[in-house]
Design a protein that fits this description.
Elements: E1 11-18, H1 30-39, E2 40-48, H2 64-78, E3 82-86, E4 100-102, E5 105-108, E6 110-115, E7 118-123, H3 130-134, H4 136-163, H5 171-178, H6 180-200, E8 204-207, E9 214-220, E10 223-229, E11 238-243, E12 246-251, H7 259-286
Parallel strand pairs: 1-2, 2-3, 3-5, 7-8, 8-10
Antiparallel strand pairs: 1-11, 4-5, 6-7, 9-10, 11-12
């Protein structure tokens, strides 16, 4: 019996914003990122910082699923999507390439776009982090601790879901909720971003960094400022989408892989192996 292939239509968007993917870390949900990117067809894709976690990057840990995210982004680039890569603190080494432009790809620290007559200001947000400014070593230590907490969380979730048949747990969310200082930091971060946006007369301010997805409206004497945060792809699995003049917050739900997706993965692996074998053959011919 022949396999039936169902072509899934992609959602067309004016703009999609992702941040804090943290490729190269154990906590990164790369398969979910790739699945989401495959489901959309945006005119513009903004990667708002901490896409590759250079702080914790190790040559010993770079799974295929992480590489597939990079390949998917370049495939979108080849298909005509305009991509802005905005640098964050975990990929700050890329700041030396600020203003790099290669066709539809631009590397920037910040970005201003006009969306249906309104100005949107995009930046990662680490400039508002006092810890980043004065104690970078402490921030890096916290990043390592966070990654370790995510690994423990993954083990706990496996036991909770597969063995105990209970729901998912989130250690880091519990830790954040348990500290008033963490909640105050988020509130201060949002208010600071909005205040600067008011001074610059922007309508939207779009950040990442704090892994707290939200769309929040702030009424001011000059009109309403909308603060948006795209969250992350470690725990929240969220992205911001703009279409037909409206913003929405996308929440990705992890579901078991379908038979079609397993077939596609198998085909991709066979193609990769064929290319590797061809490469080896060419090397032997050259010798």
């Amino acid at each position: 019996m022949q396999n039936l292939y169902i072509i899934m239509s992609k959602r067309k968007l004016k703009l999609a914003v992702l941040s804090d993917i943290h490729l190269g870390t154990y906590g990164c949900q790369a398969k979910a990122v790739n699945k989401y990117l495959k489901s959309i067809e945006p005119e513009i894709l903004v990667l708002n910082g901490d896409i590759i976690d250079i702080w914790q990057f190790s040559k010993h840990y770079w799974p295929k699923s992480h590489m597939k995210v990079v390949q998917r982004i370049f495939k979108m680039l080849g298909n005509g999507t305009k991509i802005y890569y905005l640098t964050g603190n975990h990929d700050e080494m890329l700041r030396k390439f600020t203003d790099f432009n290669l066709g539809n790809l631009e590397v920037l620290n910040k970005l201003v776009l006009e969306l249906d007559g309104k100005k949107a200001w995009f930046f990662h947000g680490d400039v508002f982090d006092i810890t980043m400014k004065h104690s970078k070593w402490l921030a890096k230590l916290g990043a390592v601790g966070y990654d370790f907490l995510i690994i423990l969380n993954s083990i706990a979730n496996f036991i909770s879901e597969k063995i105990l048949r209970r729901g998912r747990l989130s250690f880091s969310q519990k830790v954040k909720q348990g500290f008033k200082s963490a909640i105050k930091f988020i509130d201060d971060f949002e208010e600071t971003a909005v205040q600067v946006a008011i001074e610059k007369k922007y309508d939207y301010v779009v950040c990442g960094h704090i892994h707290h997805p939200i769309i929040k409206h702030f009424p001011t004497n000059y009109g309403t400022i909308t603060y948006l945060n795209s969250g992350d792809w470690v725990e929240n699995l969220t992205a911001l989408e703009y279409n037909n003049g409206n913003w929405s917050l996308y929440h990705h739900i992890v579901e078991p892989e379908t038979e079609q997706e397993l077939l596609e993965q198998k085909e991709e692996e066979l193609t990769e192996n064929a290319m590797l074998n061809m490469d080896e053959l060419l090397k032997n011919i050259v010798k």
